[in-house]
Each structure stands twice: as C-alpha cells, then as structure tokens.
Amino acid sequence: MADTRDDDIRQESLSKALAERYLAYALSTITQRALPDARDGLKPVHRRILYGMRLLRLDFQAAFKKSAKIVGDVMGSFHPHGDQAIYDALVRLAQDFATRYPLVDGQGNFGNVDGDNPAAYRYTEARMTEVAGLLLDGLDEDAVDFRPSYDGQDKEPIVLPAAFPNLLANGSSGIAVGMATSIPPHNVGELCEALKKLIDNPNTRDRTLSDIVRGPDFPTGGILVDSPETIAEAYKTGRGSFRIRAKWKKEEGARGVYQIVVTEIPYQVQKAKLITQVAELLEQKKLPLLDDIHDESAEDVRIVLTPKSRTVEAEILMEQLFRLSDFETRFPLNMNVLDKGTVPRVMGLKEVLQAFVDHRRDVLVRRSTHRLEKIAARLEILEGYLAVFLNLDKVIKIIRTEDEPKPVLIKAFKLTDNQAEAILNMRLRSLRRLEEMEIRKEHADLTAEQKDIRKLLGSDKLKDEKLIEEVKAIDAKFGAKSRIGKRRTQIIEAKHIDKIEALAEEAVALATAVEKEPITVVLSEKGWLRALKGHVEENDSIKYREGDKGRFWVHAQTTDKLMLFSTDGRFFTLDCSKLPGGRGNGEAIRTFIDLPPDADIIAVFPFVGGRKMLVAAETGHGFITNEDDAVASTKNGKRVMNVKTGTEAKVCSFVSGDSVAVIGDNHKLLVFGLDEVPEMARGQGVYLQRYKDGGLLDAATFTWKEGLKDQNGRLFSASELKEWKGQRAQAGRLPPRGWARNGKFGR
Question: What is the 3-state secondary structure (H, E, C) of 45-99?
Fold first, then answer.
C-alpha cells in the first residue's frame, strides 16, 4: 500500500532558516523569560507562581503549604519549563536579603546571605505576603485580560492588577538575547511620594522625581556614595550604575586598640565568598594594614577586621579594602522593560512611574465598569422584587393557577426574563414586610453607588484623586513609618568623589611611609605658610618677614589634611606632609592654592571629618555645611558659599549647641535657634541678620543654657540674653552692657 502522507519538503537557505528560528527564539526569551513587564514588574514565571498560589488560596493569613505542591501546580497548569526553574524563582521571592519587599512568606530553609542553597521543595513551605495580595487585588473584577494557558486547559492573567509599584520596589534582573535588564530595589515610601507628585502633575521634571527617589534601597543596606547629580542622570536616561559600599563602625578597645566591625555588605555579595576573598588578599600581602578578618555573624552581619596596629587609620584601611575587594561594588542600572507587555525598551525613572500610573488608571476604569455591570444586574433583580411586593396577591394567584407562570408574569408586569426567573425562585420567607424594606434600602444604596461610579468614570480629576488615595494607602502600610519601610541603604551626599579621592591620597601617603608626627602650622598676615615640628604654643620667638606678623596658629599631624576657607567662599585642602618646614619664613600660600589677589584666608583648621560648620557672608547670609562636603581635590579649591560680587565671606566656625548669635558692623546683636539655619552642601544660604547700614561682623553657635561669651571671655547667661532672642533675619538690638568693644564673640 502506498504511503499517502504528503511530503512537506521545501528548499530554503540555511542562513534564512537559522535567522528566522533564532529570531523567534530571541523574541520568546525577551518577552517570556528575561524582561519584566513595566506595569507589574514581574516576569511570566513570577506572575504564574503568584497566580498559582492564589488558586491554592495561599494568602498571607492562610496556613502554609508545601513548596512542592505549589511548584507542581504551577508547572502542571501554567509554566512547563521545569520544577527547578520555578522553585528557584519562588525561593528568590521569599529571601528577605534578595527581595526588598518579599512576595512569598517562606517557612523552612530558604538559603542565607552566605550563599548557602535552600532546602529542597519537599522540606519547605510557603504562602503569599500582603504585598503579593496587593499585586493580585482585582483579578475577579475584570481588572486585566486573561489568555489561555500553554495547553488550553486553563486561563492565566496577561498582567496583574498590581496595586503595588513592584518593578521599582523590588527591582529585577535578567539576560535575554542581545539585551539585558538590571533594576535595583527602591524604597516604597519614596516611590509613593514620587507617584503622588506625578499623578498630581504629569509634567513633573525628571530632576524633581530623582530628588524624591534619592537612590536605590537595597535589602542588605550598605552605603550609596554617588553624587546626587550622577544618580539624577542615571534615572533620567535609565542607564548608569550605583556605587555601593559596606557599612562599618569602629569599636574602641583598651589602651587605644580598636577593631572595625562591618555590619552591612553590598547587595548580592555573598558574605562567605567576601571573607574568602579578603583572606586571599591577606595571604598575597596586598593588605599591609590589615592583620586578620573573622566572621562573628549570627542573624545580623558582623565581620570583624583587626588592623596591624592601633596607629593605623581606620578610614585608610577601609579605603584599601574598598579598592581591592567586594566591600565596594557597582550595581548596574539598565531599566530595559516591556512597555505594555510587548515592546522592550529602556525607560527613565519618570517613564517607569508613568507606566505604573497608566496601568493603575486602566485597572480603576475596568474595575469600576465591572462594578457598574454588577450593580445594573442587581438593580434589575431588585426592581423585579419590588414589583412582587406591590402586587403580591396577583403574583401568587398567577403562580398558583398558571401551568407556565413565567410568560404570564412577564406580560402582566412588564418584567424581563431575569426578573421573572428571580421572582419564581424567591423563597416564601422573603415575602415578609421586613424583607421589602431591606430591598428598598439596598436599591437606594446601589443607585447612589452607581451614580458615584459614573461620576468617577466621567472625571479625570476624580480618577487622579482615587489613585492618590490608593498610593497613600500603600505608603501607610509599607512606607517610612512602617517596620519594613524604613530606608536601609544610607545615602551619603556629603562624601562625594572629592572625599573618596582624598582618602585615596592618604592611602598613597601611608604607602610611601609618611610617619604621623605632630606639627604646628603657622600662616602669617601676609600669607606666608610653614610647619613647625611638634605642637608649639604661640610665642614671640617665631620670626616673620619685616612688617608681617602671625595670624593662624594650628596644631596638626603630618598625616592630616589642612583646610582653608577664603573670603570668596571657597575651601582649599592641603596635605600637611607637603607643607614647607619651619626654617626661614615659609612659602607664600598662593604657591599651593589658586587664591585670587582680592581674596584672603579667614579660617584654617585640620580636617577631622563629620563636623558641621556655620559659614556666613558680609551680606548677612549664611548656612550650615558639612566638613566632608568642603574637601577639595585641586589647587582651584571647592566653592561652597556663593558670595555676592563686592562682598566677602566673613565667618567659618564649627557648630556646637542649639543657638546662633549674629552681630553686625552696626553693633546690633541677634540670637535665634540653630534649627532656623538650613544645612546645605553649597549655596548662598539664608539671611541670618538684616542690616540697613554695614554688614555682618561675626557669627557663632552656642548652647542657650550655658550662655554666650564675648571676645573678652565674659559669659552672658541666658537670662541676660532674653531680650536679644528673636528669629532669623531680624535686625537685632545693641548688645548688653559690658560687651566687648570690638563686638566679636569668644571662641
């Protein structure tokens, strides 16, 4: 018997065949495996896991079920790609060190930050978290479209309603064919603020949003050391990277001995591998300042670093570790997502937030429309019931006497088929008078609700208000005031690249065997600089050039950085080990820094770090800045205070206490609270005191209860200063009797 099968043999170019099939594979990988949907932030496997758990009724209040049961149901009904792939995805959703806001509540061994594997799925149990419940909320109300599952036996949602901004909150990563995605997790409180801003004003600028969403918020904490400008640019373009460092502290011991304790490590760094890496560097003698490393972690991370000696600077030791090990890493930002679930493209922060808002608006419209349909159907039935109560005897007679009462009822009372069917199915107990009252009440309530929903659907403003209410509810549950919502990753805006480079220079100085020795830095009135050996008290034996005299006398160490503040609002930084020696009259300060001819130095001090300074100008403007923000890396200095043309900076003093005292050339004194002065990295500041004539003479901070000293050393108590206490930007009044003639404060 001849073979009747048709031979489907076609001649085709191999390159064309491979290209077509590889393109199909690439598209499948991009859309079905590697890239998340911009709307719910999930890949298909995660979406199917959550939907499968919902069908098993595993909400956050339900009892746990075996992970094997969940994996089996998801694989059998929705995701036929292997049990291990599903379980790995489920595990990651449950790991609180991998997912900022876990979607799965796991019970059992789900792995740890050391990199240990989780137990097999037959040993672990799981259920959804409250966050996952928010992602699924509305599935029964026609909020999203469904599609057939792979075998056509079931249906699965194309996207989840997603009442939670999951894409940015939990982040995502994946590698497809020819493209990849890498999105770090963020703080929900900040995302909610940005969403409210964007809903209220769709034209909100990218920089405004990046000022609200200040940077990633990793579940493992750490410190983000990039500048705000770098972060803003990354969020605007959707591409960039974030520099994450371990968080550490210095624990003092007896006799000056100390140890460094690392309490948080960068995201996705395995603690055990990190310790092994540092141990290998020690063996290779690449960490000359470190003696030992050991792990004392329990539930929290505690890595202990022991320096070679107590003279080693902790900051320099950590800087070496940051440069050589995974105590510092870079997390890439590549917000490559599926726009509306179909088109892969790189989005900026604003576009991602807008995609979430648009999706939630669509969900709101669909749920509202679905509810209207339900209300309309119910009102139809209720109106039929009311017809029964108005003509009860006639209805009963028809039902008792007619063989086919339904068409008779429809004709007699002009009912619909649904109404007639509902009346015939009504129980006799429903004919009581109380039931009629309840029906009328339900009818009135549903009619009012119907009116409100129609009003909502017809008004963009009401939709926006509803969306903002939803965002506020998320913020209340998972924002900054909640247990899980507090920001974990610290953002140190004060320590910009200048500070990091300064620490690197210190490390280099140490490597070139710069010994730590005491010195006394002397800067004369005419700007001649020198460093005397040892800590020398100010005396007349020090000689100056003819017509010159001493002005600044500062005790420091050879390993210190010397900070100088000039009248044009710039800070300069010098290496104390490179200052000219004490023999002779020193060298001109302008050979070390680019100080303009019309500018002068008004403050000199050794850099310590972490201190706050009050800077003020002749115009009466001033603000508080961090010492770390003032470190300069070039001879040109770093401008911190914007000084108006024709005026000068007059004051740079360290902040202590709770009050500010300001006095002008007109000898009027004003005292006000320190909290009225803003803290800034750079700017002109605000008015501390206003003047009709002259300008600012001096400014200082002090503790109100302890009183204020003038330059003669006399202490004026709080009771003596009551009349001078006011608010910032006032004119003040003449100082109390006995005040120093030159008007200045004591330091």
Answer: HHHHHHHHHHHCCCCCCCCCEEHHHHHHHHHHHCCCCCHHHHHHHHHHHHCCCCC
Number of neighbouring beta carbons within 10 Å of residue 192:
25
Give 266-287 pLDDT, tens digit per residue.
Answer: 999 999 999 999 999 888 888 8
pTM, rounded to two decimals: 0.65
Report long-range pairs for 361-365 (Cβ below 8 Å, ≥24 apart).
361/463, 361/467, 363/138, 363/143, 363/144, 363/161, 363/162, 363/163, 364/463, 364/466, 364/467, 365/457, 365/463
What is the pLDDT of the chain when averaged over all its residues? 89
Backbone φ and ψ for 506, nearest 5 degrees, come out as -65, -40
Q: Do 254 and 153 share a domain, yes or no? A: no
Q: Is 566 exposed, middle or buried (0-12, 13-18, 19+ CB in 10 A)?
A: buried
Report yes or no on 96 lying in a domain: yes
Tell me the C-alpha distance between 169 and 722, whole Å: 50
- CA distances for 714 relative to 638, 661, 667, 708, 746, angstroms: 36, 15, 17, 8, 8
Taken in order 377, 57, 486, 360, is the CA torsion positive or negative?
A: negative
Which residues does the annotation mark as catalytic?
123
- Residue 528: CATH number of its domain: 2.120.10.90
Would you state the structure tokens that stand for residue 523, as one six-digit string? 């800067």
Report how far residue 293's alpha carbon sits from residue 114's, in angstroms, rounded to the nearest whole number.
Answer: 16
DSSP state of 641: B
Domain count, the chain: 3
CB 519 within 8 Å of CB 576: yes
